[in-house]
Predict the 3D structure of the following.
Amino acid sequence: MEKMSRVTTALSSNTISGRTMFCHLDAPANAISVCRDATQVVVAGRNIFKIYGLEEEQFVEKLNLRVGRKPSLNFSCADVMWHQMEENLLATAATNGAVVTWNLGKPSRNKQDQLFTEHKRTVNKVCFHPTEVYMLLSGSQDGFMKCFDLRKKESVSTFSGRVICFSCLGSFYVTCNSKITEGWLATGGRDKMVKVWDMTTNRAKEIYCVQTIASVARVKWRPERKFHLATCSMMVDHNIYVWDIRRPFIPFATFEEHKDVTTGIVWRHQHDPHFLLSGSKDSTLYQHMFKDATRPVDKANPEGLCFGLLGDLAFAAKESLISSDANRKPYPGGDRRYPIFFFKKPDPTEQFAHVSSALSVFETDLDSNRMDWFVKTAQLYLLSGKPFAELCDHNAKVAQELKRPQVSTTWTMLRIMFSDPANLTTPGPNHNLSKLGTLPLMNSFSMKEMGSGMGTESRLERSKGDSRQDNIHLEPGNSHISNNNEENEETEGSDGQAEYMFGDAELDDDDLYSLPTSVPEYALPQEAFQLRHEIMDNPSAPEHLQQDKADSPHVSGNEAEVTCLTPIESFSLISISQPLYSPHLPASFFCPIVREMLSYYAEQGDVQMAVSVLIVLGDRIRKEIDDLTQEHWYMSYIDLLQRFELWNVSNEVIKLSTCSAITCLNQTSTTLHINCSNCKRPMSNKGWICDRCHQCASVCAVCHHVVKGLFVWCQGCSHGGHLEHMMNWLKSSAHCPAGCGHLCEYT
Amino acid sequence: MFVARSIAADHKDLIHDVSYDFHGRRMATCSSDQSVKVWDKSENGEWHCTASWKTHSGSVWRVTWAHPEFGQVLASCSFDRTAAVWEEIVGESNDKQRGLSHWIKRTTLVDSRTSVTDVKFAPKHMGLMLTTCSADGVVRIYEAPDVMNLSQWSLQHEISCKLSCSCISWNPSSSRAHPPMFAVGSDDSNVTYGGKVQIYEYNENTRKYGKAETLMTVTDAVHDIAFAPNLGRSFHVLAIATKDVRIFKLVPMRKESTSTGPTKFEVQTVAQFDNHNSQVWRVSWNITSTLLASSGDDGCVRLWKANYMDNWKCTGILKGDGSPLTGSSGQPTAMSTVVGSSVQTSQNALNGMSAGRYFFPPLDPPRAGTRYGHLLPPSSLIEHCDAEPIQPQPQALPHRLSSRSLLPLPEAEGQ
């Protein structure tokens, strides 16, 4: 680092080296200035006026110019300037309006040279002419700018205060080192903007504008860098920013050392871009090395990513990241904090300047829209209004059609578990469905009840390992579309095996997931005889009891049909036609399993299933699950439904829920204001009978019956009726069906 | 399969954040050019910019939507040390006709002394609350006591995290069993000490937020953090973007009713992937928390999904500009060059076939019957995507397995 800076600065006559360092001042600084050879810096403030030497490792106080027993206000400096040609000459702007020059060559302790007291108010700025040795310019809050000739005792010319740079009572400051080569002028002001003007033409033209977060106090062009300038602000913000004016939004570099407002900044040497000196109200004088600066852009996030509701992804990224791999910097080798003077290829300055982001949305294509299943399921599920068994069947079918065999199976199982056997009147579907339901049942049973023979885990592992048999179990779920379709079952092949199982984003390297391509020989016909034949071959095992229990409700309904499907590994889980135990297992027997199953669904992100089952099962399961969990599920599901704007479903769920916290969702802050359709007066809140005309207010204007369910009415004439009737009516006529002549409006 | 639709964002500098609204029909982007843009999805699926305005006087780091129950409300935070709340004004008929909407600033939150790095609304059930975190390590929680008056926000909590904060995420769980909880990530670059992710929880008794957990294993700068949507789970899942993608599971330990301290969590590292092979900038969960997307300095979006055993796998890579993924980008070194080129070839073939706009997540299992099937690498190659996921502790297994084995038919989620 040091070497590099030496090399770069070798261009100028002397070599500068150093490090980031600071020293404490006795008092807050107002301004600083360096001498031409960059070895000394003068610090001026209300109560300080000192010269420090800049050494390799530290600041060394060289001279205190604030001498004399009686402190004069002339020492109270707002600005200071070191003459860039005359090494001994300094000028200060005093807060009492005096402009003072100092000659360091004077032998006496008091170096004050000349005193100009022409300004009426505080002088903000002094500046030597860069080429004319004796010319000194000052700007004051009195609105005037004066030019002094140091050889005379007075100003040689006075400019009206309405000169652009000193307007607004000196709130604009002009950098004294405006780019001569470019003819550019940078201004910063209270409007929190730094503007760069092109002065080469007759009319100054604004060519760049940098927005800062606070009023700008000082602006200094960075030496040797065409587009860089440093700023500090006069309040709020204590940092020093170096901007690349081509990218006016993010500072190129930041120096954050100061604890209070930075009042003076100066580049140490006019040909060295790596050293910046600053003085601050926190009474410190800093030398900043550019390599130690923080780079806000490194912390700035170059990417944005968000998942949409339907599984689409919005992605915004810096173009250089996504366009080519050349610019990629691997982590952590590619240090992004290269100092600017490490002139690597490509030039980091250039990289910094031209940056933009590309925004794109990755949409799941319509066929496999990732959340479609949720919406459809929510809409098609029946949660109430039918006998329990029918609800389960219906929902199983819905799940089946949406290619969600596991869910479908679960519904079927639930029906079997909780149905009253007497209600089973449709043996056909029962049979098929029971087959689907068998596997999970068996698993759960073997786990729960089979303590003697085999540990749960080993049992599980083996069942996993045996993919062939798993496959058998999966098979019926796959192509089983209609419930009563024996033919289909017998002829089903391996078509589409892979399709139902895997989502777009699924890997199939797990045992349980992998489906061998061989067509499983299994096909269970509905005819009882074949099935029984199979059974005959199998020895009976203790597990039968359990198995039998599981399916007993069904078995009792249809004796001839056997419920067990296939052996799972060494256990030949078959059922016996005569139940050994009473077929009427109490439903509560299954509750722990169902509870676990619901938790499983919830943990898998399918809270829809958990809530739907909860509602359909109702009292059968409610007591098993603690209220907090139930409420949590309900809330989550309702939130999801509302996201998808499925208001009706959401409302239904709220209505059907048994949690008090949920049901009250519908009852809070919903007010209905209605007019009686007869007398057109506002109704009181007591039911649907009008107080005045004592008639039912909710009579359908089309069919003249009392409306129950969805009621729609015109806010203009208070007439309305069944939603469907009104929709039909309005197709043919725009007038009110009640004959009142009103042109009804419905939105 | 994803279709990339690129949008001419026309931001003049880097875009730092994109955010979908609650219903997924609107999108907000924010950029260093100090502006925020709002995009609306039209009937045919096109995104149109309906509003673009200057929000701050510095880079806008993040933008986020409030729950629509509170209106069309956005919050933004910026380098200029402020956060701002914006509301869309309806009824401006002229603007509406031109397809533009008008947003006005409701408040500016000026408490921070440094850059405000993230802003998030708290979950809806907590009311209208806004959280900011700033580079000086302070998290501030504001509340609008009157949801109809968005110009009044009171600073409710000020929590000092000691470390420079870069991101914040609320636990979205609405369960009463889960006290309000948020996680803060720090982009402090000093790797010698860990704990770059801290989790704070509200204590009902003290009415203050207290630190519940510090993830000491996270030692690198964290750039994004996201709690998975909690749809009725008893535990929490947290994704972290640091030098790699990490997924943590926080299982609340059963709490004695008498204890007043914060909930103790059993922290499990569920997965850790360095497939981006570079800094990871963003993580985002899908709505059912079954899919995690991450983006890194490699310019790719990677999708992660857990199988039924809670093993997380990479299931897709999306390249930002829709160009084919080259073998070198992000593939672990274990993969031979032959494999790499074969993937590439198949990719190229795919892209050539579909005019460059379609691409197939290359690691999908081949699907029988699709015309892409034969172009994809054999399934044996799929292995290469798996970074070794950290297995959960064995003692955690029995319960999990027992609940799993009940329903061993894994379901293809959301086909």
Observations:
- Helices of chain B lie at 93-97, 337-353, 397-405.
- Chain B has a mean pLDDT of 76.
- Chain B has three helices and 26 strands.
- The two ends of chain B are 11 Å apart (CA to CA).
